[in-house]
């Protein structure tokens, strides 16, 4: 599959991976870049917020903003583990999958934990970036908090 068919974001990630940046992209995620109506997820990790519950960050005025997260590169991109219209179900499946002993790329990244941000990308034509929907959630002690 030719790289020019991949979305610009995936092309950028592949180029950075080749340059030795610290994140991982699965083969499935790379291939989905050439498909229509692709759905995938990303995990963003910010060391300064690792293991800190959302309520503490909010009190300090340090809860992540959508603008801030979108400037980061994910540590993992992969296909969605389940097909569901409910974000809560997808988030639970992603969290469970990325905390299993046999998690994807487990030898390269840490398990999902409090302080991570999970991005869910749904549908749209990945070549033209139309009708795509991305939502971001902060992993909290119990559940997830939407990042706006």
Summarize the structure.
The chain is α+β, with helices and mostly antiparallel strands. It is built from five helices and six strands, in the order H-E-H-E-H-H-E-H-E-E-E. The protein is globular.
Secondary-structure topology with pairs:
Elements: H1 8-18, E1 24-25, H2 27-32, E2 40-44, H3 54-60, H4 66-70, E3 76-79, H5 87-97, E4 117-122, E5 133-139, E6 144-146
Parallel strand pairs: 1-3
Antiparallel strand pairs: 2-3, 2-4, 4-5, 5-6
Compute the gyration radius: what is it? 15 Å
* Number of contiguous helices: 5
Strand order of the largest sheet: 1-3-2-4-5-6
- Which shape, going by the Cα principal axes? globular
Q: What's the count of strands?
A: 6
Helix and strand run? HEHEHHEHEEE
The first-to-last residue Cα distance is: 35 Å
The chain-level mean pLDDT equals: 76
Largest sheet: 6 strands, mixed
Strand portion: 15-25%
Helix coverage percent: 25-40%
Counting helices, strands and paired strands, the structural category is alpha+beta
Q: Structurally, how many domains make up the residues?
A: 1
Description:
- With 148 residues, this protein is α+β, with helices and mostly antiparallel strands.
- The protein has one domain (3-146).
- Helices cover 27% and strands 18% of the residues.
- The chain contains five helices and six strands.
- The protein has helices at residues 8-18, 27-32, 54-60, 66-70, 87-97, and strands spanning 24-25, 40-44, 76-79, 117-122, 133-139, 144-146.
- A six-stranded mixed β-sheet has the order 1-3-2-4-5-6, sandwiched between helices.
- Strand 5 and strand 6 form a beta hairpin.
- The longest helix has 11 residues, at 8-18.
- The radius of gyration is 15 Å and the shape is globular.
- Mean pLDDT is 76; it is low at 1-7 and 13-22.
